[in-house]
TrEMBL record:
Keywords attached to this entry: Kelch repeat, Membrane, Repeat, Signal, Transmembrane, Transmembrane helix
Keyword Signal: yes
Any matching Pfam family: Beta-prop_ATRN-LZTR1
Domain Attractin/MKLN-like beta-propeller: 107-372
InterPro entries: Beta-prop_ATRN-MKLN-like, Gal_Oxase/kelch_b-propeller, Kelch-typ_b-propeller
Top-level division of the source organism's lineage: Eukaryota
Residue stretches spanning the membrane: 207-227, 388-412
Keyword Membrane tagged: yes
Organism of derivation: Gigaspora margarita
Name listed for the protein in its UniProt record: Galactose oxidase
């Protein structure tokens, strides 16, 4: 070999090494992960890598990976500064994470835990995992009075209040077997300061695959998803009858919303703005991966009026089962299923980052933390509430929704379609799984 050839091979090796190292630092596309903002770090936990048949429970490839983005410095959305953290003891998806306002530890509550990279449910797994991001340590706490009916609970979106109480409503224990599941309408409360569990029995319709957003006044707003009509019967939830739970007096009430025409959906995300608006994004409304319309909508939580922000359609991602967080005026979306390219049998998954500046509803490609915060002060009455608003309101806006309810109605519809070949699914179709037999 002459010198020139040597230089060429060295260059090749360097280039290959560079690519290798680079690829190591880019997370694979995934969906159904959960995410939380801890200080300036945006964390992503778990998810499913599987691109084949999203209706087939056994085809999942559930990861234990933990990734985070440091939001304290600028970056381009094409090259986010990804960091990989210590993995979880289990593969995890279909759950949600809450950040304690007290010591910023992360609580993974419910969801499904798997032996990594398989879809073998680890039935013995504990329903709550705690992550200390200071030292990258996962632990399983002892919970006093844990209600074993909560085991395998999924399709839920727990939220944590500023006193460290986690509220988890409804959900299902569906694990892929349509002849063995129930829907719940109870409210479980985990007080993370004493690690005690309590269950409120509540006579309101259960919800699953909804988003839950805690307002500064202590009211949790449940949007979208599926509403249960019995322990095994559900339908798409109305966007105009919104169930709310008051964490101060444990009362439920249904708010009647009006305004713009907003389609029902599951697999969407929700974030709370400093003005008290909830912005929902993405999701789908049926089993054929049709994007929900409009894909972005805003709910004013004082007037309960829906409106549709004027967002440039160009480069607008149509995502479901993604993560969304509000950081200042930046709504950051990551991962998820790209609906326009997915079908029942094949999912195209994303590992992209999308940032919407909600000051003017434009997509931006340069993340600049100094420009991300507006001067508006949150509409809250004391410091504690400010913390809640910024820390928890944003954290609670992160969504993780389940694919398996869609699976549930998918399987049912397939069966129904076989029986009635002309059946065309329409929004608002009631899916009576109990009639399957
Ligand atoms: C579901 O996925 C598993 C694992 O990939 C496969 O063995 C099985 O045949 C699939 N079932 C159906 C109904 O497609
Ligand atoms: C699951 O994903 C991992 C990581 O990409 C991959 O190595 C593995 O082959 C996948 N397993 C299956 C069954 O597809
Ligand atoms: C992490 O470190 C911060 C700052 O030192 C501290 O306030 C917090 O309590 C720590 N969190 C945990 C879970 O140890
Ligand atoms: C599904 O649940 C039914 C009723 O509990 C049970 O008989 C059946 O064996 C289960 N099927 C699978 C594949 O686990
Ligand atoms: C769900 O709960 C019902 C009622 O307790 C039980 O019969 C069923 O076996 C459970 N299914 C799973 C998958 O745990
Ligand atoms: C446990 O949860 C179930 C289901 O919501 C409920 O019926 C039961 O009363 C709860 N048990 C206790 C001790 O709260």
């Amino acid at each position: 070999m002459n010198l020139f050839q040597n230089i060429q091979s060295y260059l090749l090796i360097i280039i290959l090494l560079f690519f290798f190292v680079n690829c190591q630092n880019i997370p694979k596309p995934r969906y159904l992960q959960t995410s939380s903002l801890i200080g300036n770090r945006l964390y992503f936990f778990g998810g499913d890598f599987s691109t084949t048949d999203s209706s087939n429970f056994s085809a999942g490839n559930i990861t234990n990976e933990v990734w985070y983005l440091d939001l304290s410095s600028s970056f381009n959305t094409a090259t986010p500064p990804w960091n990989k953290d210590v993995g979880m003891p289990i593969g995890y998806f279909l759950g949600a994470s809450c950040v304690s306002p007290i010591d910023h530890s992360v609580f993974l509550v419910g969801g499904m835990m798997f032996i990594q990279n398989t879809a073998n449910i680890n039935l013995g797994s504990w329903p709550v995992y705690v992550f200390n991001s200071n030292i990258s340590l996962w632990t399983t706490p002892n919970i006093i009075g844990f209600n074993s009916s909560f085991k395998m609970r999924n399709g839920i979106q727990p939220v944590i209040d500023n006193y460290g109480k986690i509220y988890t409503f409804g959900g299902t224990n569906y694990t892929g077997n349509l002849s063995s599941f129930v829907l719940y309408n109870d409210m479980s409360i985990l007080d993370t300061t004493s690690m005690t569990w309590s269950t409120l029995a509540i006579s309101i319709n259960g919800l699953l695959y909804y988003t839950a957003t805690l307002l500064p006044n202590g009211i949790i707003v449940y949007i979208g998803g599926l509403i249960s009509r019995s322990v095994i019967l559900y339908e798409l939830n109305s966007m105009y009858e919104i169930q709310t739970f008051n964490t101060k007096n444990y009362n439920w009430s249904t708010k009647v919303a009006s305004g713009a025409s907003i389609g029902s959906r599951t697999g969407h995300s929700a974030v709370l703005t400093q003005n008290g608006d909830i912005i929902i994004y993405g999701g789908l409304w049926n089993d054929t991966h049709t994007p929900a319309t409009p894909y972005i909508a805003k709910l004013d939580t004082s007037s309960w009026m829906w409106s549709i922000p004027n967002v440039s359609q160009i480069n607008s991602p149509q995502l479901s089962y993604h993560s969304a967080v509000l950081y200042g005026d930046y709504m950051i979306m990551a991962f998820g299923q790209i609906l326009s390219m997915s079908s029942i049998s094949y999912s195209v998954l994303s590992n992209s980052l999308y940032i919407l500046d909600i000051k003017n509803y434009t997509w931006i490609t340069l993340f600049n933390p100094n420009q991300s915060t507006s001067n508006q002060t949150p509409p809250s009455d004391n410091h504690l509430h400010n913390d809640l608003f910024i820390g928890i309101g944003i954290g609670a806006g992160i969504v993780l929704l389940g694919v398996f309810s869609v699976v549930g109605f998918l399987l049912y519809k397939r069966k129904k379609q076989n029986q009635y070949p002309k059946f065309i699914p329409t929004p608002g179709t009631t899916d009576r799984i109990n009639m399957m037999k």
